[in-house]
Amino acid sequence: MRQEVDQREALYNDRPVGPAGVIQVPVERITTLHGFVVDLDPVKLDPDNPLFPPADSPRAFHQAIGRVLARHPLFRDAEVRVSGTGLHLVVHLASAVELKTAADQQRWKAVVRAAQSTLPADPDAPGVTALTRPVGSINSKNGAAVEVIAPGEPVDPSRVVEFVEGLAAAPFRTVATILLGADRFQPCPACRGEGTRLDVLDQFGWCYGGCSKVSLERLFDLVYRPEPRSEKPRAGAGEPRRRASPRRAIAAKPPLRAARSKPRKKPR
To answer: Is residue 268 part of a domain?
Structure first.
């Protein structure tokens, strides 16, 4: 059987397969949602980070982050595909979601983006319009065939919505317990000071004996590869510090308000 090169697979409408420029559509043209994709790119990650460590091969990467994925209420059931050097987590919905109105489309756009942002995913990847690579197709960048390394199980759409609603109420607690595996962590992963302790709260973390308040964006910056400043450093300046890009800020602060299941009623 002939293996197709650089084909893509959509998880919406009639699930077309073909070149990305042909099958990808804007959210306004998505009327049926069958699932969504999270793109995990080890190149984007700090090689020295212990929370979500990259690896030299996709299988080794999957093994290294296995405990984090196992703690995730949604992505522990995702199908895992080797996409090239990284991984695609494919969440298959147990029943397709019909997007009958523009409000439905915008709501699920926000739901998917919020769910994606609870892992250190590629911050430049699309949201609900994201495509995966079909199993058996070839990635021309490295000549590797796309394969499934974990089959996963379908997820009921209500579980996705419930997870995102919980994320809206307690964003730091939701993400931190997934990444850290506990609601208290010693030493604090942000400052790593001797004798410090990070307590996980709903909206932020608090480091006792060290750096005090730890934001969700700062937690993500412990995992992502440091980005150099775009401007020239001042004379005498040290190494470029970690600096969140605008897309990384989106990943760290997901658009949760539009993802709530029911709009708030206006007071009469």
So the answer is: no
Residue 1 covered by a domain: no
Q: Look up residue 1 and give its amino acid.
A: M
Indicate if 220 and 96 belong to the same structural domain: no
For residue 247, count other CB atoms closer than 10 A to its CB.
Answer: 12
User: For the chain, what is the domain count?
Assistant: 2
* pLDDT greater than 80 at residue 4: no
If asked whether residues 62 and 188 sit together in one domain, one would say no
- Categorize the per-residue pLDDT at 265 as very low, low, confident or very high, splitting at 50, 70 and 90: very low
Residue type, 131: L
